[in-house]
Amino acid sequence: MKRGIIFWIPIILGLTGCTTHYYKVQADKITIYLKAPSAEKVDFVSSLDGYKIHAAEKINSYTWAVTISASSEFKYFYIVDGVLYLPACRFKEKDDFSSANCIYVPEM
User: Fold this and answer.
1) How many helices (H) and strands (E) does the chain have?
2) What's the confidence (pLDDT) of residue 78?
3) How far apart are alpha carbons 108 and 93 in whole angstroms?
4) The domain over range 19-104 is classified in CATH as 3.30.160.270
C-alpha cells in the first residue's frame, strides 16, 4: 500500500501544479516569487495600488516573479490561469467576497 501511495504522490503534485511562494527584500523593493510549474499565466494583485493586476514574469520553467515597491504592510493574492489563488502564507485575512488575502508584514 505504501508503495502505491509513494508512486502516486509525485504524479498528483505534477498534475495539480504544486505551488509555493517566497519573497526577497532589497531596500524599498520586494520581489515575490511563485513556483507554479504548470501555469500558463500568473498575475499578482495587491492593496498597494488599489488591487490593480500586474503580470508576473516567468523567470524559468517553474518560477514566476514580480517586483514592487513595498516599505509597508499590504494584502495580496495571485490569479493563476484565470483562477484566484491564495498560497500558504504566514498572515491571512478574510475579505468581503468570502475569500481571503495574504498579508505581507515587513520585518522590523
Assistant:
1) 1, 10
2) 93
3) 21
4) no
User: CA 59 → CA 2, 52, 64, 70, 99, distances in Å?
Assistant: 36, 22, 6, 21, 29
Q: What are the backbone dihedrals phi and psi of residue 40, each rounded to the nearest 5 degrees, phi first?
A: -95, -30
Is 61 within 8 Å of 99 (Cβ atoms)? no
Tell me the pLDDT of the chain averaged across its residues. 80
Tens digit of pLDDT for each residue in 51-90? Answer: 999 999 999 998 999 998 877 889 999 999 999 988 888 8
Q: What is the pLDDT of residue 92?
A: 83
Residue 19: band (very low, low, confident or very high) from pLDDT cuts 50, 70, 90: low
The separation between the first and the last C-alpha atoms of the chain, rounded to the nearest angstrom, is 48
DSSP lists the bridge partners of residue 80 as 42, 83
> Positive or negative CA dihedral for 49, 50, 55, 60?
positive
Q: Which three cell numbers stand for residue 89?
A: 502564507
Q: What is the DSSP letter of 72?
A: S
